[in-house]
Write a structure and sequence with these properties.
10% of the residues lie in helices and 49% in strands. The chain is mainly β and 263 residues long.
Length: 263
């Protein structure tokens, strides 16, 4: 199911945030440039994210952690640098502080359907809110996997983000035609019945498809349909605990990685 375009206002909000390193394989001690891509496009977005909204911008590995440096907003993306301390698989992370959006009823419903959040549509109907504007607080949690020298099992590491996609196989060891099992965690627990979208390149053109929904253990198997960069995307939405702040709260997760060419 290929994602549909929304009306301008809803689409302007429904932007994926994801990390795109300049390359997915580096040498120990190398400084890597990393882009925060914001938008529905892949492998590049179309807008920046304000640096002051970013938190937990760091590299995690068995060799230690490194903080992102030189975070700067550019016209179409936000960029940073990070140093890879030693050999192994490293995880780049970041999150945004919560932000608020309000959409009229029709646009909010369109956005919910676009992001496969039909259960929220039903809940709004049950609560008699289907004709009311959608008041939402949202935050985004992004990860990327890179290989420093030689990979290890660190790709399975839980970083502690509120929502995160955990690969259960090393993407650097996969080839086109394989599948990668992943688990979606929300507040450290398996997130079941969550739609997961995959984005990849086919002959240089972006392809995006909702693969399916996680099982009760938060797991789903993702087909690898192309080499090069990939992005996985998932959202959890729930009733906002702070009713004065918003009616709903969403937590967006993305994971980027690269699959080597078979040649």
């Amino acid at each position: 199911m290929i994602r549909l375009l929304l009306t301008l206002s809803a689409a302007a909000f429904a932007h994926d945030l994801y990390l795109m390193p300049a390359k997915f394989s580096v040498t120990p001690g190398e400084t890597l440039r990393v882009a925060f891509e914001n938008g529905d496009g892949f492998p590049a977005g179309d807008s920046s994210v304000k640096p002051e909204r970013l938190r937990d911008t760091r590299l995690h590995s068995n060799s230690g952690q490194s903080e992102f440096t030189g975070i700067i907003e550019q016209p179409k993306r936000t960029a940073a640098s990070v140093r890879a301390p030693g050999e192994g698989t490293a995880i780049l992370t970041a999150r945004t502080i919560p932000n608020f959006i309000e959409l009229d009823a029709a646009k909010f419903r369109s956005y919910l359907e676009h992001e496969n959040l039909q259960h929220i549509v039903k809940l709004r109907d049950v609560r008699g809110e289907s004709a009311k504007p959608g008041r939402e607080r949202y935050s985004k949690y992004v990860k990327s996997l890179i290989t420093v020298g030689r990979g290890d099992e660190h790709f399975k590491h839980r970083t502690g983000l509120t929502i995160e996609i955990i690969p259960e196989a090393d993407p650097a060891a996969l080839r086109v035609g394989d599948r990668i099992p992943v688990q979606v965690l929300f507040r450290g627990q398996p997130a079941g019945d969550i739609a997961v979208e995959s984005a990849w390149l086919a002959n240089g053109k972006a392809k995006m498809e909702v693969i399916g929904r996680t099982d009760r253990d938060g797991r789903i198997s993702i087909p690898i349909l192309g080499s090069g960069p990939h992005r996985l995307h998932a959202i959890v939405m729930e009733r906002c605990a702070d009713e004065a702040a918003a009616d709903w709260e969403s937590f967006w997760a993305s994971l980027t990685f690269a699959v080597p060419s078979s040649h």
